[in-house]
Every structure is written in structure tokens, then in C-alpha cells.
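Same chain as my last thread, 119 residues:
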Amino acid sequence: MIGHDEQADRVTALEEEVAQLRRAVVSHALVDQAIGVVITAGGLRPEQGWEVLKQVSQHTNVKLREVARCLVQWPAGRRLPEEIRRALSVAVAQARDAPHGSAASAERDGQVPSCRPVA
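reply #2:
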């Protein structure tokens, strides 16, 4: 039979696990939304959006979920931090120039979206 202390420890561990899983679900949803912003703004495919998001995070040394939060808030008029804006422009340009670009990307005139903050 399990003692009261063991049961309490097990309940505490399960509560912590549930809280961690809830944070993960919220973070995943935020990242998915940010990928949507990237593919819409950059005219990219979903897998390219994920790569761009990772690249921006790595090159700015900003956690992925923080980059995602900034990008999700950007269309609503929030300003992108300058380092994220610059890294986003570079990453989108590299994704468009990748040899496996979509037909739509190949037809474009090669201009990178300005990624300027919305006023």
C-alpha cells in the first residue's frame, strides 16, 4: 500500500507535469502562428517558415518562443526589435534563394520583404 507521503509526492509530480505540458501546448501554438506570419509575409512554404524562425532565433540569440511572440504581435502593429527585423530579412532572402524554392518564389522579382515594423 502506498503511504500518504508517497501519494502526495506523486500528486505533486503529476501536477508539475501537467503544468509543463500546458506551457508546451501554448508555446507550440505560438510557434505555429509565427510560422504563419513568416510564410505569409515572406511568401514561403511552411517548412521554409519553420527554418526561417529557427534561423532568426539562432542568429539573434533570442529564444524561439520570444521570436515567435514578437512575430505574432507584429501584424497587430507592434514593432519588431531591430535585431529580429534584420535577421528575418536575411533569413527570408536565404529561404527564397534556396535551390528547392517553390515556383512562386522563382517567379518573384527577388525582392525581400522589408520586414519594417508596422507603424
